[in-house]
Amino acid sequence: MRNTITQRGHWKKTHYNCQLSSLPDGTEVTVMGWLQDVRDLGKIKFLVLRDSTGVAQVTVKVDAATKNIVDLLSKLTRESVIAVKGVVKRTEKSRLGFEVIPSELKVLNYAKKPLPLEVTGKTPADFETRMSVRFMDLRRRSELLIFKIQHEVLRAIRSFLHEKGFTEVFTPKILASATEGGAELFKVKYFDKDAYLAQSPQLYKEVLTSCFEKVYEIGVYFRAEESNTPYHLNEFVSVDIEAAFMDYEDVMQLLEECIKHVYHHLAANCSRELRELGVELTKEDVTKHFPRITYSKALEVLQDKGFAINWGEDLTTPALRKLSEEFEGYYFITDWPTETKPFYIKPSVKDKNICEAFDLMWRHIELASGGTRIHVREELEESLRLKGLNPESFKEHLKAFDYGMPPHAGWGLGLSRLIMAITRRQNIREVVLFPRDRTRLTP
Ligand code: AMO
């Protein structure tokens, strides 16, 4: 079969499938993509040619087609890569409103039979199969669109933060010590030393507020989480901001505006994709003020619902599910017990047991967390000690606090969790191209 493969040669792809429906009748085109399906009615064959933008129908009338086309068609396998030269014909008979009548056909690469996964979705595949042949899974439009939407979400976040005066930065991912505490660290060999993969850009982004005032980073982070949940991965993308001369109220407001900007952007730029995914963005998402509820108030609400949690304990997923019955969509939980939050979070001036921290929730899922930071060296050292950490291990970081560290605040937003909220997918693995979890290191 191999020797029948012809190269692209001088052929150039002239159009993407999404452009074909707006072309005048009779336009000559060269389209290239994957043969998704063939509907064979004997004398007439309908080829479904898919590219990254959608499908086109190539209609072959056997009596009128060249011998070369007919011969190639008899050998073609689904998911082979093909190139078609032909003309666009507008027709009511096709669901798409047009078809391509081919004059020439080339096979650029044959796909083997049988396929490891049904791209049309006619035969559903189980989750493990989908993940193990992810390159095929991602050819399914329902999966591909998630990442088209993610691309637009990132575009919206970047433009929003740019408008607000933030500078995009990149901080190291190979570190000498922990950022978020000692657990969940991946150790790597760094020549003759031990090093660790970054769990977040926390310490660097804080230090950078003393130079840039407002910074953001969209980066990949690593956590050696042992647990297997629908919300955790060992490698994840976080959108982080940090801003000088702001406190947790300011950055919470900024986060709310950022999420609303994303929704506006998606409504304006991705309505077709969202419709195809069956996702409806409600007006409420962008008009409603995100409710803010303190941790203590959340405990009262839970108690009223018969869910007893001691003050100072973290909120478990079952508790958050219960709590989210009170809220539609997005809300903040604020003013957490100091002991539940990391060492860099500033305790409240009124009560040291409570700190200026918040989580952004969507239903029962935590999408982001953030807060006001401690910017005074002595207080930070004290906080490290209280958390059982050794200030000596943080001496490089602490140095910056001796020379004019401004008051500052920030947040970290889990990109994939936001995509889960937008696309309503239940498992974080579905919204990550090649997820890394406790048992998955390939593909
Ligand atoms: P935190 O540890 O809460 O805060 O992380 C911030 C957000 O990142 C996402 N996230 C994860 N997503 C997938 N898999 C994981 N294992 C995972 N861990 C975290 C979540 C979470 O809300 N430095 C602080 C942020 C700050 O205060 O600026 C931090 O890392 O959506």
Question: How is the secondary structure organized here?
Answer:
Elements (H helix, E strand, L loop, with lengths): L16 H4 L7 E13 L3 E8 L2 E8 L5 H9 L5 E10 L7 E12 L17 H6 L1 H4 L3 H23 L3 E2 L5 E2 L11 E4 L2 E5 L4 H11 L1 E9 L12 E10 L3 H22 L1 H6 L6 H5 L4 E3 H10 L12 H7 L6 E5 L22 E6 L2 E8 L4 H10 L8 H5 L8 E7 H9 L20
Parallel strand pairs: 6-10, 12-13
Antiparallel strand pairs: 1-2, 1-4, 2-3, 4-5, 7-9, 8-9, 10-11, 11-16, 13-14, 14-15, 15-16
Helix pairs in contact: 5-7, 5-14
The protein binds aspartyl-adenosine-5'-monophosphate.
Task: Name the descriptors.
443 residues; 30% helix; five-stranded antiparallel β-sheet; 16 strands; single chain; 2 domains; 25% strand; OB fold (Dihydrolipoamide Acetyltransferase, E2P); 14 helices
Describe this structure in words.
- It contains 14 helices and 16 strands.
- With 443 residues, it is an alpha+beta fold.
- The strands form 3 sheets. Strands 6-10-11-16-15-14-13-12 form an 8-stranded mixed sheet. A 5-stranded antiparallel sheet has the order 3-2-1-4-5. A 3-stranded antiparallel sheet has the order 7-9-8, with no helix packed on it.
- A hairpin with a 2-residue loop joins strand 14 and strand 15.
- The radius of gyration is 27 Å and the shape is elongated.
- The chain starts with 16 loop residues before the first helix and ends in a 20-residue tail after the last helix.
- The mean pLDDT is 94.
- The structure holds aspartyl-adenosine-5'-monophosphate (AMO).
- The site of aspartyl-adenosine-5'-monophosphate has 22 residues, from strand 11, strand 15, strand 16 and helix 14.
